[in-house]
Fold this protein.
Amino acid sequence: MSELHQLAKTAGLLANWQPRTVQERFIVFAGEALGEDYHSLIGDRKTHPLALHRQIAMAAMRIALHWSYPKVARAFNKRCHGSAMHAVKVVQVKASM
């Protein structure tokens, strides 16, 4: 859980937050399966387990929802669709091992 998310949760700011859009629901679902929270997956932290979990979630979104790379990248607050392309490539390589 990100420090900012933990601080906001402690302050009670996120107590009533509910995912509203398809992308938010998908990221919450993927986060639950991977042991991460929504705000960590869309955040900027690049620690190894979190980055890998974000890549898996991005690849899953691309495959399951048939979204374009730019749309997937925007869902995860990334400016460049290259992040989504790289995520799919990493997951494909790891899956073929």
User: Anything to note?
Assistant: The first helix runs from residue 3 to 10. Residues 63 and 80 are 18 Å apart (CA to CA).
